[in-house]
Amino acid sequence: MKEIILNLQKNSNEPLYIQIYKYIREEITANRIKRGAKLPSIRHLADYLNVSKITVDNAYQQLLVEGYIESRQRSGMYVQHIEEMLITPIEVNKMNICPTPSFNHIKYDFHYGTIDTDSFNFNIWRKLTSQVLKSSKVQLLQYGEPQGELDFREEIAKYLRLSRGVLCSSDQIIVTSGTHNSLQLLCELIDYNDRSIAIENPGWSNAKFIFEKNNFEITPIPLDKDGICLKTLKENSSKFVYVTPSHQFPSGIVMPITRRQHLLRWAKNSKTFIIEDDYDSEFRYMGRPIPSLQGLDDDERVIYLGTFSKSLAPSLRMSYMVLPKKLLDKYKQNVSMYEQSTSRLNQKTLQLFMADGYWERHIQKMRKVYRKKYSLLIKSIEDYLNSNVRLIGGNAGLHILLEIRNGMSEDMIIQKTEMAGVKIYPTSKYWMTHSDLEYPIFLIGFGGLSENQIIEGIELLGDVLNSN
Ligand SMILES: Cc1ncc(COP(=O)(O)O)c(C=O)c1O
User: Fold this and answer.
1) How far does residue 307's CA lie from ligand 1's centre (Å)?
2) Tens digits of per-residue pLDDT, 251-266?
3) Is 391 helix (H, G, I), strand (E, B) or coil?
4) Residues with CB under 6 A from ligand 1
5) Which fold has domain 16-90?
C-alpha cells in the first residue's frame, strides 16, 4: 500500500488516534488509498509513527465501525470495496463537518467553560428584558454610548468597589463583549514601541494568542507557590505584565497579599503596567476574598479586566475593563472610532438586574451551588481515584487541576477516558515550555455538570485510571 505520510501533532488537543483515523479516512475517500488495499499491521504502523499500539488500534476500530475498512480473519485490515461502502459521497461530506464520533458518546464532559444553567432565573430575566423594551422603545434601536450605557457602568463601578475593592468611576469603565474583546481593544491603545509583555507560564493561552497577533514581544514567567515569580519578572524589562492573581489560570494559585504588594511596588518602580484579569473572583470557597490589585494600586498602574461569563452566563458576552488615566486618555482620543459591541438591550437588562438586587442574590446563590459541587468533586476524587493523583489549586473558581501519576501519558489518558465516555482537558497547551512537567496535568471543570454527573463521572474516571 502507499506510504503513510502523516504529521502527527503531539501537542494538539485532538487525540492521536483521531488524527490517524481522520488521515486514513481522508486518504480512502479521496481514493488515494485504493479499495481493497491492505492497511499496515497495527504493530508496523505504531512503530512507524512512534505511537502506542493502542493508538493505532483505536483508529482502526473507528474506521471499522464506520465501514471504511474491514477485518479479514488472520489476514489484516482492508479498505472496503466501493460497492460495499455504506455511505455515499454526499454523506461522506456531511460526516466531515460533523463532530468526530468519539465526542458523541461523551457522557461526562468536565469542560471548564460551562456554568450551572439550572440556576439562571429566566423569569426574572424575561421580566426585566420586557421592562427595558417597554420603557426604552425606539431609543434601543440606535447606537448606544461607545463606552457602554452610563447607568450600567455606574452599577458595575458600585459592585466593583464593594466586592472587589476596585476604586474607579464609571468614566474609567469600558463595556466589552468578552475578555478577548477587552484585550484586543487594550492592545490597540498601546504604542508599537511599548508592545512587550510578560505573561504567566502556565497561563491563559487565549491572552497569549491576542498579544501574539498584536505583535507583542512575549516573555513567559514561571510561577512559584504565590503566583508569578517576582524574581524572574524583575530580570525582565517588558512594559506590561498579564496576571490572574485571584485564581491563577490554570494552576488555581491565589496570590497572597504580600506578593500583590511587592508586584505593585515593582510595577511602580519599573513603570510597568499590570493587566489584572479577575475572571472568576466571585467564587471563593474558603477564607475571605483578597482585594484586587487595582484597589491596592496608588500609581495608576493596573488595568483591571472583569467578565460576567463565569458569574452569569458566557453567552451574554458581557465584560468590562477599567482603565488607568494614561490609557483612558488614549481611549478618549480615539473614542469616535469605537462603537460599543455589546447589545444595549442586554446592558440595560443587566443594569436593572444589578440595581434591583437580583445580581447580589444570584451571586450568593451561585456561591452555594458551586461550593457544593466543588466539595462533591473533591470528595469523589478522594473516594474513587487512588493515590496516583494529586489535586492542584482549588478552593476557588469553577475548575481544579489533577496531576495523574499512574504511568499513562497525556495522550493515553485522553484516549482511554474518551473511549469510556469521560472528557477531561489536558493542560499542556497552557505551558509555553514543557520541560518541568513531570506528570500530565488535567483541567477539570465542574460548573456545568449536575451533582450526580460529577460523582458518576469521577467514578468512571477512577475505573479508567486505576485500571492501568
Ligand atoms: C483566564 C480567563 N480570563 C477570562 C475568561 C473569560 O473570557 P470571556 O470574558 O471572553 O468569556 C476566561 C474564561 O475561560 C479565562 O479563563
Assistant:
1) 7
2) 999 998 899 999 999 9
3) strand
4) 113, 178-180, 204, 244, 249, 277, 279, 307, 309, 314, 319
5) Arc Repressor Mutant, subunit A (1.10.10)
**Whole-number pLDDT of residue 84:** 43
Q: How far apart are CA 311 and CA 313, in angstroms?
A: 7
Q: Are 69 and 60 in contact (CB under 8 A)?
A: yes
Residue range 322-340: mean pLDDT, rounded:
92
Among protein residues, the one whose CA lies closest to atom 12 of ligand 1: 279
> Could you tell me which CATH class the domain 141-356 is placed in?
alpha beta
Does the structure show a pLDDT above 50 at 362? yes
Angle 169-170-172 from CA coordinates, rounded to 5° = 75
How sure is the predictor about 104, in pLDDT bands with cuts at 50, 70 and 90? Answer: low
Q: How far, in Å, from the CA of 60 to the mean position of ligand 1?
A: 37
pLDDT in tens, 150-160: 999 999 999 99
Closest CA to 115 of 401, 429, 363: 363
The CATH homologous superfamily for domain 108-115+362-466 is Aspartate Aminotransferase, domain 1 (3.90.1150.10)
So where are the chain's domains?
Answer: 16-90, 108-115+362-466, 141-356
Of 318, 360, 365, 198, nearest to 266 by C-alpha is 198
86, pLDDT greater than 60: no
pTM: 0.79
Task: Determine the Cα–Cα distance for residues 280 and 387; give it in Å rounded to an integer.
Answer: 29
Whole-number Å distance between alpha carbons of 240 and 189 = 13
Q: What is the pLDDT of residues 290-312, one digit of tens each?
A: 789 999 999 999 999 999 999 99
- Dig out the grid coordinates for 328 from the structure: 483612558
CA proximity to 42, closest of 28, 27, 53, 52: 53
Residue at grid coordinates 470557597: 285
Q: Kindly give the distance from the C-alpha atom of residue 279 to the centroid of ligand 1, in angstroms, as a whole number.
A: 6
Q: Which of 30-39, 258-267, 415-424 has the lowest mean pLDDT?
A: 30-39
